[in-house]
Amino acid sequence: MSRIVAGAAGGLPLKSVPGDSTRPTTDRVKEALFSRLESYDVLADARVLDLYAGAGSLGLEAASRGARSVLLVELAPKAAAVCQTNAGLVNKALRSDIVSVRRGAVDTVLDSFAPAAGVSGGKSWDLVFMDPPYPMTNDELAKTLQKVALLLEEHSTVVVERSSRSEEPIWPTGLTRFAEKKYGETRLWFAEPVQVAAE
């Protein structure tokens, strides 16, 4: 059973998605990931986006550890329903509506946050988790990363979780990898925005 590892809702058990359609992040990996994120000082008061959320465990852990707001994005109906249940459990434990859920395709949701042409003020994020299905190709992931790169605050962090056998993601202009770590069958890639010089 998955649970919140630490923070204000630490120890809270979470519902899992039935079947094997999702790939939950293990508590060991989650603990190591959040220890690293806390050392980067990106959790406190962060606006967090959890893409391909599954049961929502990464975004929910961030909420427990001091995030300002968390949005879980999941397309699969069963997983989105579990996200909704878990979000309710965490919000109740925190006595706040920090966590919300949006059911939909990740690229469609990201497109909805982009500012309209010629209009500034699109939605922006401090911390983004991406745990795409392993069958997703690097080219497909690169297109989604390009959309994410346009929605980041200056000192934000993007975490991409992939199989340890997967190639490094193709980072778009404006996003650069600054760390990576392997945990058994899982590899985490950490990226941050970079200023692109105007031509």
UniProtKB/TrEMBL annotation:
The keyword NAD does not apply. InterPro entries: DNA_methylase_N6_adenine_CS, RNA_MeTrfase_RsmD, SAM-dependent_MTases_sf. Keywords: Methyltransferase, Transferase. GO terms for molecular function: 16S rRNA (guanine(966)-N(2))-methyltransferase activity. Pfam families: Cons_hypoth95. Signal peptide: none annotated. Its EC number is 2.1.1.171. PANTHER family: METHYLTRANSFERASE. This is 16S rRNA (Guanine966-N2)-methyltransferase.
